[in-house]
UniProtKB/TrEMBL annotation:
Descriptive protein name: D-methionine transport system permease protein
Family membership: Belongs to the binding-protein-dependent transport system permease family.
PANTHER family (UniProt xref): ABC TRANSPORTER PERMEASE, D-METHIONINE TRANSPORT SYSTEM PERMEASE PROTEIN METI-RELATED
Keyword Transmembrane applies: yes
């Protein structure tokens, strides 16, 4: 295809752009929502375990902490596209396919779990040591301290951490579109980039930016509201 043909190609009509972006936005929200939920379900306990076994934690276990920390750091350092390829057989085993939004959820969630784990560990470390010591002196067990002190005191910060993860997953989901993951990334690459359609490409970028801003706004509002309630009831 020569340059003249490319220059003469007409951009996609706006009505068609909307028809492309609406279902793609739904797919992106589906991927990000489910993978964020899974990352929170598995990442929060991982972060708690990292905190408890750390030096100075309630149950310091240096070896366990170092092994967990190394696994978490490896997971965070792994480029998402490499992780996506590495997990193809796992994805096919779990969902029966390696293409589509549901298949993309597997590497998205796996990649986000260590990210959430480290964020949760950092959040729990911010809980004032005097609060934890007070709970210990009352004879509270580890599970009760985790549930009633560490997690309860950290709820606003935890929501903020999950929001950061969701925004990161929006970017990861766009990368998943490169290999058939669907969503806005798929539209941007397959139609916007490969067909040289700047209208589709930029419209996709704008939708991704708006989506990211709305997610950030929602989690920030929820975090601030819970923080005010916590201080009001203290």
């Amino acid at each position: 295809m020569n340059v003249l043909v490319l220059a003469q190609r007409q951009p996609t009509e706006w009505s068609e752009v909307v028809e492309l972006l609406v279902p793609a936005t739904g797919e992106t929200l589906y991927m990000v929502g489910v993978s964020t939920l899974l990352a929170a379900v598995f990442g929060i306990p991982l972060g708690v375990l990292l905190h408890l076994t750390a030096p100075g934690g309630l149950h310091p276990r240096p070896t366990v902490h170092r092994v967990l920390g190394a696994i978490v750091d490896l997971g965070r350092a792994m480029p998402f596209l490499v992780l996506l390829v590495l997990l193809l057989s796992v994805t096919r085993f779990l969902v029966g396919s390696t293409i589509g939004p549901t298949a993309a959820i597997v590497p998205l969630a796996v990649g986000a779990v260590p990210f959430v784990g480290r964020l949760v560990q950092n959040v729990l470390a911010e809980v004032h040591v005097a609060v934890v010591e007070a709970a210990v002196t009352t004879g509270a067990g580890t599970l009760k301290i985790v549930r009633s002190v560490l997690l309860r005191e950290s709820v606003p910060a935890l929501i903020g951490a999950i929001g950061v993860t969701a925004i990161a997953l929006v970017g990861y989901s766009a990368m998943a579109g490169v290999v058939g993951g669907g969503g806005l990334g798929d539209v941007a690459v397959r139609i916007g980039y490969q067909r040289f359609d700047d209208r589709v490409l930029w419209a996709t970028v704008i939708v991704l930016a708006v989506l990211t801003s709305l997610i950030q706004l929602g989690f920030s509002l929820a975090s601030r509201r819970l923080d005010r309630r916590r201080h009001a009831s203290a």
